[in-house]
């Protein structure tokens, strides 16, 4: 008899309501009775990474050490799958010129297929389906996401599943000008050696106390795409993909 599938959920970092995201993701993981989930707030437990059958991450500014970065690359290179969400590719330095995105983890960017650079203010934007025939997005209709629109530096060959178009400014960021309108991936697959990453940039969330020490109290609670049924459907399909299940719906 085969044993349970071992998931590792890494959920932690800065400037987001990780308590909220962690609970929501654990509820979705718990829908499959064959999955047993270990939880971490960063990448320090190299043995947990090595043991996992699949990896799910919701982080922001969690910077792996060289050994941790190598372990993540080896995890995917060895043939396993990584569902990476929202700020997993984001590293942020607050400078007098604005928020900078240091290119401090080039190996991780190559594995993930992208690095966060900036986003315009949160406001609704249209998300369209780039590959309607793919099971991960089959039947998904265009929708409006009131969320952070991620503007990223891209690495490698991406199979884009969802996208949006943007041109304009990202105030507060060092790399603020984004001419276009140009397409920006919202959800994509990125193969890395024998494994693969599925990246979904949607899913910002923040509570009143999550911007410390930059700001003593944030003025509002943000739940963004977590309030959309389509987002939960995309997460469910992403988790089925990560588990290696053929039927994604």
What do these coordinates show?
With 249 residues, this protein is α/β, with parallel strands linked by helices. It has a single domain, classed as 3-Layer(aba) Sandwich (Rossmann fold). Helices cover 21% and strands 35% of the residues. The protein is built from five helices and 13 strands. The strands form three sheets. It has a nine-stranded mixed sheet with strand order 2-1-3-4-13-12-11-8-9, sandwiched between helices. Strands 5-6 form a two-stranded antiparallel sheet. The model has no long low-confidence stretch (mean pLDDT 97).
Keywords:
two-stranded antiparallel ribbon; 9-stranded mixed sheet; Rossmann fold; alpha/beta; 249 residues; single chain
Task: Indicate the radius of gyration in whole angstroms.
Answer: 17 Å
Beta fraction of the residues?
A: 25-35%
| Average pLDDT metric | 97
Helix-strand string: EHEHEHEEEHEEEEEEEH
H/I helix tally:
5
Please describe the topology of this protein:
Blueprint (H helix, E strand, L loop, with lengths): L4 E9 L4 H12 L5 E6 L5 H6 L2 E7 L5 H12 L3 E5 L7 E3 L2 E3 L5 H7 L1 E5 L4 E7 L13 E5 L3 E4 L4 E11 L7 E16 L2 E6 L28 H15 L6
Please summarize what this structure is.
This protein has 249 residues and is an alpha/beta fold.
